[in-house]
Amino acid sequence: MQTLYSTPYLHIYLHQTTHPTLELHWLDFVPSADFRLAMEELMRLARQYSAQALIADNRLLRALRQADLQWSGDLVFRGLSELGGRRFAAVESLDAMNRMGVTALVANVIPNTNLASQFFPTIEQARAWALAPL
Predict the structure, then answer these.
(1) How far apart are the C-alpha atoms of 15 and 107, rounded to whole Å?
(2) What are the two backbone dihedrals, phi and then psi, of residue 63, each rounded to the nearest 5 degrees?
(3) Are 87 and 117 in contact (CB under 8 A)?
(4) How many C-beta neighbours within 10 Å does residue 81 have?
(5) Into how many domains does the chain fold?
(6) Contacts of 117 (CB under 8 A, 6+ apart)
(7) pLDDT tens-digit profile of 49-59?
(8) Alpha carbon distance 114, 112 (integer Å)
(9) Cβ(10)–Cβ(39) under 8 Å?
């Protein structure tokens, strides 16, 4: 696992297994502007490394604005799908508001993409599923 991006809010890692996979490890609350910059960087990295899967460790991520969630769903899920991405694995946030927002977003956006998605109780389980051969 290689660190590609690091801020006080987020680390982005690259897994090079049978297919390139990016992993987001959220560390805390992130202001709207920083969230959007991080998502744009994620998509730059997804294009650079031809990412086929995305893992989001949302355990420490707190509530996001609905507008930011919707924007990120369009950018990330549709963008990853257009790049040929196949999987999205997430570990749910400990924050109930974030959990509800992300769950609703995934339910609304993922069906309109080529991504399979699944939520997991641990990062190890999320990694195992996302990194398994396609």
Answers:
(1) 26
(2) -55, 140
(3) yes
(4) 17
(5) 1
(6) 87, 88, 89, 90, 106, 110
(7) 999 999 999 98
(8) 7
(9) no
Amino acid, single-letter form, for residue 111? P
- 25 touches 13 (CB < 8 A): yes
Which one, of 76, 85, 90, 9, lies nearest residue 43 by Cα?
Answer: 76
Q: pTM, whole model, 2 decimals?
A: 0.92
Token readout for 6 is 């690091």
Please tell me what DSSP assigns to residue 131: H
Locate 61 and state its tokens.
Answer: 């991520």
pLDDT at 101: 78
**Residue whose token pair is 């609350």:** 29
Q: Residue 66 CB: number of other CB atoms within 10 A?
A: 11
CATH number, residue 127: 3.30.750.24
Which domain does 91 fall in, by range?
2-131
Tallying the residues shown for the chain, one arrives at 134
Residue type, 1: M
Q: Is 86 helix (H, G, I), strand (E, B) or coil?
A: coil
